[in-house]
Amino acid sequence: MAAGCTPKTQHNAESAQAARDQLILAVGSESETGFDPTTGWGRYGSPLFQSTLLKQDNEMNIIHDLATGYDVSADGFIWTVKLRTDAKFSDGQPVTAADVQFTYETSAKSNSVLDLTVMKSVEAVDNATVKFTLKEPQSTFVYLLARTGIVPKHAYGKDYAGKPIGSGPYKLVQWDKGQQLIVEANPEYYGKKPVFKRLTFLFLSEDAAFAAAKAGQVDVSYIPASFSKQQVAGMRLEAVHSIDNRGIAFPVVKSGARNKDGSPVGNDVTADIAIRKAINTAIDRKALVNGVLEGYGTPAYTVNDGMPWWNPQSVVPDNDLKAAQQLLGDAGWKDADGDGILEKAGLKAEFNLLYFAGDITRQSLAIAAADMIKPLGIKMNVNGVSRDEIKKQMHANAVLFGWGSQDPLEMISIYSSKYRGIDYYNTGYYSNPVVDGYLEQGLRAASPEAALEFWKKAQWDGQTGLSAKGDAPWAWLVNIDHLYLVKDGLDIGKQRLHPHGHGWPVTDNIEEWTWSK
After folding, report:
1. pTM, to two decimals
2. What is the DSSP letter of 381?
3. pLDDT value, residue 502
4. What single DSSP character describes residue 411?
């Protein structure tokens, strides 16, 4: 018999190779608004289909992507960015300065989560040079250059979010809304070519994703901590550290007002700083990590624990019921009628704590936190409600939210008085002129390094601040490790510190993924 491969053998080998070139992932929820960077896609993690001027490496350092370099004028008003000349969109057209100009002008008009109000103008000086002119210096502008995916001027239209064209490592092939997203490697990509030619993202709940992993239907699955102790044949557990935090946002103003949509604003109980400080002091964060997260996480004391702009001096010792009781007693809260709930001037220390219905982890954290403060005489009524209902009630009730960004802009979004009542940002209507001043100084600093002093003072300057040691508008609870079941033999590379959003950030380094065996 002649040696060599028969057609059947060759076909089997090709099929096996094709299977190794593809991955099926159940790693997160569907993007509700599609994949348009000008309206916020890619803010938490890589935009996947697009590339950015700058990006962060695994050590969180700012490095070049589409840009080959940038200069900032001495007064901080002019940012000049040089572009690489070999980058192309997935339709084969070159990426030019005109596309960058178009992207940032479109983003500025979108009024999305990308706050570009500081940008006065953006100009394509030539095909490979872009000049940004700011209204005033802003140290955090560098992060906007690293968060905004570039879109093609020639191919941008009203349906772009559903049919994106970009210069990132992958291009969209098929989007079955509510079910799956299929992407293929972009042959025009200028960076390191990904090993995997085709990715299928399944939009499954955490329960369904876990079931798919057990059935051998996915290569990577995100799971909640409650499933972490269960073994799945052929898969291993990968725990990735994050700054994806969970905390309780309190209304800090008294009730009586309504916003422009007619929703109530304010809560008389949580408007008392003693209530907020007592809760922060009584919560046992380590117990939440061990009990709710099965040990996969860390206690959270601020929105930015461990980041370069974090102020460790802002941390208040927790798990101290005696100190919490002292705070409440000194503020005039007493249980006069013996029903186990404190009163003050006829007001009961009772309020609602809302969370997004269907989120197992938030539900467990909310219930556990309520149990921890019950001995103080504070009653938190835990309710899981819809996203629409949260929007209506979040200014008058405590809400268990999740945040966590790789830049200090988020601190401004949730604590600055200029964001009171805007979207999901400063829902509690917190305001402190001293804090606002520090945040503004941080923004106007000459560089990210020079801004650190002001970010830290905003948290605690020895007298006041936005932290639990200061005004305590939040009670931060935990930073959640992102947990994934990964098929044996699949190497997902070195994962950087994940931002908020369990799922999509795992693909930030998709070019590093490969089979190890």
Report:
1. 0.84
2. E
3. 59
4. H
d(C-alpha 119, C-alpha 104), whole Å: 9
Structure-token pair, residue 226: 């409650």
Distance (Å) of CA 475 to CA 41, 105, 154, 399: 28, 37, 47, 10
Integer Rg of the chain from CA: 25
Q: Do the Cβ atoms of 159 and 136 come closer than 8 Å?
A: no
Contacts for 329 with CB less than 8 Å, ≥ 6 apart: none
Candidates 281, 460, 263, 307; CA nearest to 373 is: 281
End-to-end CA distance of the chain, in Å?
A: 33
Q: Which two tokens stand for residue 201?
A: 């993202």
Instruction: Give the count of beta carbons closer than 10 Å to the beta carbon of residue 215.
Output: 9
Task: Quote the pLDDT of residue 6.
Answer: 59
Query: For the segment 402-423, what is each residue's pLDDT rounded down to a tens digit?
Result: 998 888 989 999 999 999 999 8
Burial track 228-246 (b if 16+ CB lie within 10 A, e otherwise)? beeebeebebbebbbbbbb
Report the candidate in 192, 199, 195, 151 with the shortest Cα–Cα distance to residue 174: 199
Regarding beta strands 220-223 and 22-26, do their DSSP bridges make them parallel or antiparallel, or are they unpaired?
Answer: parallel
Q: What are the tokens at 50?
A: 């697009």
| CB neighbour list of residue 83: distance below 8 Å, 6 or more residues apart | 53, 66, 67, 68, 95, 96, 97, 100, 127, 128, 129, 130
Q: CA 201, CA 28: separation in Å to the nearest integer?
A: 8
Please report how many Cα atoms fall inside a 13 Å half-sphere around the Cα of residue 245, on the Cβ side: 26
Regions of the chain short of the pLDDT cut 50: 1-2, 11, 13
Residues 314-357: tens digit of each pLDDT: 999 999 999 999 999 999 999 999 999 999 999 999 999 999 99
